[in-house]
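User: Structure please.
Assistant: Input sequence and predicted structure:
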Amino acid sequence: MNIRVLNWMVWATLVSLSGGCGGPAIKKTTNLPPNSKPVVLAATRDELLDKYNEIARGVKSVNATVDLKPIAGSKYSGVIEEYHEVKAFLLAQRPSQIRMIGQAPVVGTTIFDMVSDSETFRVYIPSKTKFLVGSVAAERNSNKPIENLRPQHLLEALLWHEVRKEESVLFEEFNDETARYYVLTVLRGGYRTEILRKIWFDRSNLQVSRLQTFGPKGVLLSDVHISDWQPVPGDQEHPAPSTPGAVSAFPRQIRIERPHDDYRLDLQIIKLTLNEDLPADRFKLEQPAGTELVRVADTAEEKPPGGKPQ
């Protein structure tokens, strides 16, 4: 059999399989409208680092009103608890100060008031007349996931850590059926190199879309999803002269997942002010009279003087 005859037979077979002879089709072609084709932008590693660090350096403080919805538990723990959405007033300021006051819808009564600095967190729960105090480094988890919520967990979602020049950063693409991404992986050194965090950029707009933070041995501590980037208030109506380090946009939707703390927070920013001078007394939370002091320790056996462990 010569080559010409063999090629003709292969062609005829393919035509018949594709429906040319009434057989079942093996290919379907869909022509998408030109305007439906996703935008995929390109950037270099250094361009993305500069874009990220511009926001990390530029956001000094956050004053926001948010709608907050906590979800505790997961399919892995066997129980999922969805809480009612509450309005919260949130203050955050570098290097490590944060305060959040949650209020019940309509009636406006305080559900919780929590603050944190680089060393200690304090949480006031009026309905239980309890005042919780603990170290931000405490790793003990409560058997009630919602009680693992700590104010410092919100800091990394609002005030990002700058990527320093001496840090090792890997650069890669990631594609799935919904979108295409660039991923920067920041490494921590030492005896063994480990992942410190991952920064995801959506290639449709080159905005940060996800921040993952890892602990020792690759433990995923925090998974923050970021979306709905909008101009910073005042930029469009009252344009200001270009200022080095100025932040032009900020996300309005933030989802914080804490896998090992077994809870999730969904935040929608309703009102936002950046880089306002926030007095130190706005981050002070003293124990109200008549409340029970609960000292949150790493283990239930630890019982510091003057209070009982949680």
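Confidence is low (pLDDT under 50) at residues 235-242, 299-310.
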